[in-house]
Amino acid sequence: MKRFDERLYAAARQSLEVSRQLYTGRSDYQSIEVFENTLLGRVLVLDGIVQTTEADEFIYHEMLTHLPIYGHGGVGEVLIIGGGDGGILEEVLKHQVSRVTLVELDPQVVDVCREHLPSICGAAFDDPRTNLVIADGADLVAGTDDRFDVIIVDSPDPIGPAQVLFEQTFYDDCRRCLSEGGVVVTQNGVPFFQGDEVRSANRAFRALFSYSGFYTAPVPTYYGGHMAFGWASDSLDLAGVTPSSIRARYEANKLGTGYYNPEIHLASFALPNYIRKLLGD
Questions:
Q1: What local confidence, expressed as pLDDT, does residue 10 receive?
Q2: Using 50, 70 and 90 to split pLDDT, how confident is the model at 209?
Q3: What number does CATH give the domain 3-53?
């Protein structure tokens, strides 16, 4: 039986059985692979690193979407940077938003995922509220005049073209694009192995925004324990929204979620001591 070995870390790796190869190719930006695994379902791999799987994508996509949207409480315009698999897009569209702009650098990722991972994106790309933009996300936030209530940075690891999405200049441009009360959320890796991602984002957030912090969720595919999500805003303390507000918003628009609920929302801001240490707390 063929196996796929992910080599994100030099001293540790995970190996997945490939029960069926569905796609192998290379775009102008990266290698793209989709295969089936008997436990995880279909698996998307970019440049040799697992991006998402059918079995557990709901945890990552729900936590990067519903927590900031329910925390905000009045979202109309959403910007997704990255997210070519459509998972975040599908979750955002479950809310009563007016428009969702998804900016993806690599159009081939979108095409491959629409063909081979429809269980993740569903019909999200065909929704009339979806505005798909094929462009560099960093360039878009640097030049757009649009303003967004929530900006979701669904980026891969800071390797190659994605490196710019982890730099302070990019976060500053995101800050400029937020509407009053707006919030930006980011994926910041697995702190047990990728502590520098959390440290650098934390430094940038504290230098640029009035409010910022991190929350976590366990995503089995992302080897190493807790997954860290960063958040930052100039006018919304996302971690300080009252439990009664979160529960009321959830009950008013109760979604069919597999992981997220109001209790998880509130508990996810409680950080283990090893992550607090990375933040200097």
A1: 87
A2: very high
A3: 2.30.140.10
Fold classification of 57-279 (topology level): Rossmann fold (3.40.50)
pLDDT band for position 159 (cuts 50, 70, 90): low
Domain ranges of the chain: 3-53, 57-279
Does the annotation count 154 as an active-site position? Answer: yes
Q: How far is Cα 116 from Cα 108, in angstroms, rounded to an integer?
A: 12
Q: What is the pTM of this model?
A: 0.95
The DSSP annotation for 57-71 comes to HHHHHHHHHHHHHHH
CA dihedral 35, 38, 42, 46 (to 10 degrees): -50
Which is the catalytic residue, given 56, 85, 154, 157? Answer: 154
Evaluate whether 3-53 and 57-279 have a shared fold: no
